[in-house]
Amino acid sequence: MEFNQKVIVVTGAASGIGLALAAAFVREGAAVIASDRNEVLGAQKAQEIGARFVPADVSREEGVKALIDDVLAREGRIDLFCSNAGIGVGEGPETPDKTWDLIQRVNVMSHVWAARHVMPHMLERGDGYLLNTASAAGLLTELHSAPYAVTKHAALAFAEWLSITYGDRGIKVAALCPEGVWTPMIQNAPILQQTAITTDELVGKTLAVLREDGFLITTHPTTLKGFQLKAQNYDEWISKMRHLRGKAMALLHPQGEETRA
């Protein structure tokens, strides 16, 4: 896919990965519609990069539908829909149900709702691209938050299903699965900060895969190495993850008092 003169929607575009992607697509000559639930910051950042801003709360289906309807009414089509918004909340099984519900809505159902409402338009045209931001946690795991690990596995599984089901009908799908990236998301995860890359580096890797109509986008060589070990020897992989979690918790709680389950 080339991006010049394409209509591209990016959710979660007020900061972090979403903002970096939106800015890059603008530089590539696309008509970019940036969206975020933070109306003030989102509108400010969109103006700075030269994108049109549409506020939307993607934790609600009506928010996702309204965003898509707005773009189809104004721009007439959507060439690439970047379902990027995501949150990292919760710890272990003690995490309240309302928190599980919220992260499920944002990290999984927002992708489902996006596909539900943009897919008919793309299928009618016989062309379209969905970029769903998952995480390396979808291939591996997340050491701090069970809800994050679970929902990112689900987000990746849904992207796979979409690609398998609609790939022969002109619809392309990509799953963005980064490890640590310098965004607010990793401010409380010092182990991810040790190998974190910049959003500019992530953008470069993402656009390179999209240009080739690819599916899987990773940012660190350790991701696929870990995924291969997981497939080849699950017990060994679990053992390594236990060891890595111990290191992560020691960095998070240097006094040796682990507060997370």
Instruction: Give the mean pLDDT.
Output: 94
Quaternary state reads single chain
Order of helices and strands: EHEHEHEHEHHEHHEHH
What is the number of helices? 10
Predict the CATH topology: Rossmann fold
Strand order of the largest sheet: 3-2-1-4-5-6-7
List the domain count as a whole number: 1
Report the top-level CATH class.
Alpha Beta
Overall geometry comes to globular
Second rung of CATH, namely the architecture: 3-Layer(aba) Sandwich
Tell me the distance between the termini.
44 Å
CATH superfamily descriptor? NAD(P)-binding Rossmann-like Domain
User: If you compute it from the alpha carbons, what radius of gyration comes out, rounded to the nearest whole angstrom?
Assistant: 18 Å
Unreliable stretches: 257-261
Structural class assignment: alpha/beta
Q: How much helicity do the residues have? A: 40-55%
Which key phrases capture this entry?
7 strands; globular; disordered C terminus; alpha/beta; about 15% strand; seven-stranded parallel sheet; about 55% helix
